[in-house]
Structures are given as C-alpha cells and as structure tokens.
Amino acid sequence: MNPIIAEVTIVPLGTSSPSLSAYVAEVERVLSKYSHIKSLLTPMSTILEGDLDEVLGIIREMHEVPFSKGVQRVSTRISIDDRRDKQISMHSKLEAVKSKR
Amino acid sequence: MNPIIAEVTIVPLGTSSPSLSAYVAEVERVLSKYSHIKSLLTPMSTILEGDLDEVLGIIREMHEVPFSKGVQRVSTRISIDDRRDKQISMHSKLEAVKSKR
Amino acid sequence: MNPIIAEVTIVPLGTSSPSLSAYVAEVERVLSKYSHIKSLLTPMSTILEGDLDEVLGIIREMHEVPFSKGVQRVSTRISIDDRRDKQISMHSKLEAVKSKR
Amino acid sequence: MNPIIAEVTIVPLGTSSPSLSAYVAEVERVLSKYSHIKSLLTPMSTILEGDLDEVLGIIREMHEVPFSKGVQRVSTRISIDDRRDKQISMHSKLEAVKSKR
User: Cβ contact (<8 Å) for D77 and C80?
Assistant: First the structure.
C-alpha cells in the first residue's frame, strides 16, 4: 500500500447565502464511515491520507452531498501528493518541514 | 448523462530539468484512447468534458503516466465543475461569457 | 522582463443563481484596459501572460469586480508558472507539448 | 480592515530530488518577519490570515525564495477566501463547521 495525501475543497455554488459551513459539515459527515482514513479539517479544505483509489472514491461521495441538499452546481477541487520513493504521511510531511526550520 | 467539465494538471516533481513538456505530451497520449471524451489542451492544464466517473477514471490513468517514466513524485490537481440544473459543455460555457461581453 | 503565465478563476459565492457567466464577463472587462497583456479565456479560467507584478495587480483588480456587483463572498484561485532559465509564453508552452506528441 | 484567508502552495520544479521540505522550510522563514499575520502550516499548504494586499505581498516574497536557492522554475498556487458581509478568521471558519457537525 502506497498512501497518498489529498486535499479537497467542495464549494456549492448558487446557494443564496454566502455561509457555506452547514454544507461543509454535511460533507465531513461522509468521513465518519471511513475511520481508517486519516483526515484533517483546515480552514480552507479537508486533507485525507490513504490509498489513492479509496480516497478518490470517498471524494466522489463527498462531492455528491451538496446536490442531495438541493444545490444545483458544485465546484470541487482536489490536489493529490503521491510519492513513491518513500512512504509519506500528513505527520511526516509536517515533521520534515519543522525539523529544517 | 450529466456531463461535467474537469480541469487537470499533472506535475512531475524531482525531475532534474525544469522542462516538463515531454511528460505532458506522454500524459496527453492517454486521451487518444477516449475519442468520445472532448478535451482541450491549454497552456496550464488539460480540460475534459464527459461523464464524471469516466473522466475521473481517465485522470487516474493520466496520473500514473509520469511514474511509468521513472518519476518518483507527482502532484495532480483537479478542478471539477458539475452543474445539474442544465446541461453544460466547454463550448456552452465559453459562449455564455462571450454573449454577455 | 521575465514573463510568467498565470491562470485565474474568480468564483462569486452566495449568488442566488448557479449561473455565473454574467460575473465572468464583467471580470473579463478589466482586461480590455491592459491590451499589452496576453489573455486567453478557457471554459474553466482566464490565463494571463506578462510581468508577474503587473499580472498580480490585474488579478487583484479582477477579484474586486464581483463585490462591486453586490456579491458578498469571492473565492479566487491563482496558479502561477514562473520559469527563469528560459523565456516562456502561452504559445511556446503549447508548442513544446505538441511537438512531442 | 477586512481580513481574508489565503492558502498558498509553492512548488519548486526541476529539483533533482523529490524531497521538497527544505524549500518549504526556507519559504516559511519569510513569515517570521510578519508576526502580526496569522499563519498555519498544513501537510499541503500554508494558510495565511490578514489584509488581502499585505498577504499578497508576503506570498510574492515567498514565491521568490526557491529562485534564490537556485531553482529555475516555481509553480505557485493561491486560493483566496474573501468575505465581506461578516468578518471571518481561520478560527471562526473551523468553529462554524464544528458547531454544525
């Protein structure tokens, strides 16, 4: 297994209010089903760590959530960091930077 | 069928040269197998139009290409525009903007 | 002068309709004042070519447009490609890929 | 003052090694000069909170760092969240989601 780190931001468009946190909370609920997938909520995104295909499947499911709440258009951005010469994790990436400060 | 528009940029990291066009050309070759999927090469990305799951599968395949050329780390960014109140296309999106200029 | 290529997407949030093309058209109007800056409208973004500081200034001005139309929240994404070992352009980047196909 | 939240990822290209943490650590050093700007290092980015023009100026300075270390090409991605109907912060955005879980 080669874990990747992926960052995802799911933005509902055409909601009448600029407040989007209720949608974000609903999207996050998907993650509770996948307790073996490490996740981190940041002020701008959700970061996931796990097998690439499984993570893409979870993101696919997250992307569907705003539509189920009546939203008509969703903009989803994904950024994948996939390194294969050594195993990476959210933790190891942060530690590598901090150790060089 | 609900076609989505997706933009993808696949960036090989740790290549010794800053020239990446040979990798991009190799990644683009994946698209030749999918002649029913509309695609547009821009100076910053590849834009795809088609069914969301099929497009994600193609992007998954594109992401693998640099590794098969010896690259050890790949950063892939995807941006999905999924609208369900009306059918969109790369063409209709451009026309909608141009008609309002 | 070292021209960079920048891709920008300016997304108004909390608009009542999922149609955003009227905002995009208004944002594009900013570019008509900068005829020496090359620009390309794609189905997902606007790509600009020029001096980095000037391009950032133009993007700053584009970012302000939806607010002037009553929007209360704007999500702006910028991607900058800055290469300094050789001069790049939107045209040369596309040609480099096509020549290797 | 209207604080915005911006996420930035600065990726050096054409480095011979796929390890980039030394560059990230160097880029982060820029922030030590701006103690009034809140920042958060995540496994995928740096998130900044402050005045839009000041934050863009800091990102401009961060973007220059890899070049000063001999890198020939830098890919910088910025995502700005600018809300003007109410004041937002990194903290308030996280709390808004957590309170709705």
Answer: yes
Chain A neighbours (≥3 Cβ pairs under 8 A) are B, C, D
3-state SS assignment for residue C73 = strand
The pLDDT tens digits of the residues spanning B4-50 come to 999 999 999 999 999 999 999 999 999 999 999 999 999 999 999 99
Domain residues for D56? 3-99
What CATH number is associated with residue C91? 3.30.70.930
Q: Do D94 and A41 touch (CB under 8 A)?
A: yes
* Exposure of D9 in the CB half-sphere (CA atoms within 13 A): 21
Q: Is the Cβ–Cβ distance between C2 and C55 less than 8 Å?
A: no
Domain count along chain B: 1
Beta strands of chain C (E only): which ranges? 3-13, 38-41, 46-51, 73-83
pLDDT digits (tens, 9 = 90+) for A70-99: 999 999 999 999 999 999 999 999 999 999
How confident is the model over B45-101, as pLDDT tens digits? 999 999 999 999 999 999 999 999 999 999 999 999 999 999 999 999 999 999 998
Q: What is the DSSP string of B44-64?
A: S-EEEEEEHHHHHHHHHHHHH
- The pairing of strands B73-83 and C3-13 is unpaired
Closest-CA residue of B relative to D12 is B13
Chains linked to D by 3 or more Cβ pairs within 8 Å? A, B, C
Q: What are the beta bridge partners of residue C49?
A: C5, C38
In the three-class reduction of DSSP (H, G, I as helix; E, B as strand; rest coil), residue B25 is classed as helix
Per the rule left: phi > 0, alpha: psi between -120 and 50, beta: everything else, B68 is: alpha
SS3 label, residue C26: helix
**What is this model's ipTM?**
0.97
Written as one letter, the residue type at D74 is V
- DSSP characters over D32-50: GG-TTSEEEE-SS-EEEEE
pLDDT tens per residue across span D21-38: 999 999 999 999 999 999
Per the listing, tokens 């139309």 go with C69
Query: Which residues lie across from A75 on neighbouring strands?
Result: A11, B81
CA distances from B20 to C2, C94, D13 (A): 19, 12, 9
Closest CA of chain D from C62, distance in Å: 13
The CA-atom distances, in angstroms, between C76 and each of A20, A64, C65, C82 are 16, 23, 11, 19
* Closest residue of chain C to A74, computed from CA coordinates: C18
